[in-house]
Amino acid sequence: MMQTTTKNRIFASPLARRIATQQGINLSGIKGSGPHGRIVKADLKKGSQSFPAAIDLQSRNEYSADDKIVKIPNNNIKKITAKRLMESKQTVPHFYLTIECRIDALMEARKLINEQANGDYKLSVNDFIIKACANALKSYPKANVSWTDEAILQYPHADISVAVSTPNGLITPIIKAAENKGLRSISEEVKDLATRARDNKLKPEEFQGGTFTVSNLGMYGIKEFGAIINPPQACILAVGAGEQKPYVEGKEIKIGTFLTCTLSVDHRAVDGAIGAEYLQILKRYIENPVNMLV
Questions:
Q1: Same domain, 48 and 184
Q2: Are 114 and 22 in a shared domain?
Q3: The pLDDT of residue 193 is above 90
Q4: Could you tell me the CATH number of the domain that includes residue 283?
């Protein structure tokens, strides 16, 4: 009988490989019962019984008697988040579109507005991004949707969920009808919601729902990333850090500040052309912030 491995190659059915990947199972320790020793789905259930003992043995070998593994209980927020994200990756067909936006004009507008505010308020780059996303959704509502088996639902307002990290886990408070709000109003609302989110004082209606999510890791120096869609929404925008780089304008080489935006899309509700068109509109708002002020 052919062995399940030949020169380190593992013979397994596509279904067994997919389940093993999802559950973190090492196929090299599984004996196959299929044709020619191929590993099949049933073998995974048999082999899984031995995994805890193997893990315990490995733990004993790697840690001394004085070392202790810290067990951190999962709170409800983390449990719910984990469940929803797992369901999203398993059931939502993600695809990703990336675009670069030059933000020199945005940075200059932000500087001037904050100087004139005299400390009454202070706009962040993310406030501009939220407003740009909302205005782009208003201009192009085909991206402001969610999928159901019966129909694609298109929403009348851009309710922007903003990803906020808290001691209890990730939460996404909502700026409702953000297309109708000014930058100052958005900025103050984001700060209030984020503060109360970290203090665990949000009402359910303030973080449940939303039609589109913004996740910004630029403040951590992350240049580019792809985010997991927040169901039932069809899109989430991942925003990276601003980075100076050369670009050509006319016949001159100049230095500008660019940030990368990656749109994760539910392909059932938003196809590639719609996602690309939305990003083009978003880019125009980000690069010409005066359009957000009128």
A1: no
A2: no
A3: yes
A4: 3.30.559.10
Q: How many whole angstroms separate alpha carbon 143 and alpha carbon 271?
A: 9
Instruction: Give domain status of residue 241, yes or no.
Output: yes
Q: Which residue has the tokens 């900025």?
A: 187
Residue 36: active-site member: no
**Residue 68 maps to a domain:** no
Find the catalytic residue in 36, 94, 157, 267: 267
- Residue 54's CATH number: 4.10.320.10
How far, in whole angstroms, is CA 288 from its chain's centroid?
A: 25
Q: Please, are residues 282 and 132 in contact by the beta-carbon 8 Å criterion?
A: yes
Q: DSSP class of residue 269? A: T
Instruction: For residue 57, give both structure tokens.
Output: 């043995």
> Please, are residues 263 and 235 in contact by the beta-carbon 8 Å criterion?
yes
Q: What is the rounded distance in angstroms from the CA atom of residue 259 to the CA atom of residue 103?
A: 7
**CB-based contact 210:134 (threshold 8 Å):** no
The pLDDT tens digits of the residues spanning 207-244 come to: 999 999 999 999 999 999 999 999 999 999 999 999 99
Return d(Cα 266, Cα 274) in angstroms, integer.
Answer: 11
Place of tokens 């990656």: 262
- 138 and 270 fall within a common domain: yes
The pLDDT-based confidence of 8 (bands split at 50, 70, 90) is low
Q: What are the start-end ranges of the E strands in the chain?
A: 5-6, 9-10, 94-102, 145-147, 152-154, 160-162, 164-166, 169-171, 174-175, 212-216, 235-239, 243-249, 252-266
Same structural domain, 20 and 124: no
What residue numbers bound the domain in which 53 lies? 5-62
Q: Give kind and range of the element (H or E) at residue 106.
A: helix 104-117
Cβ-contact 59, 67 below 8 angstroms: no
- Write down the pTM of the prediction: 0.78
Q: Please state whether 208 falls in left (phi above 0), alpha (psi between -120 and 50) or beta.
A: beta
Q: What is the residue type of 226?
A: G
Please state the length of the chain.
Answer: 294
Tally of structural domains, the chain: 2
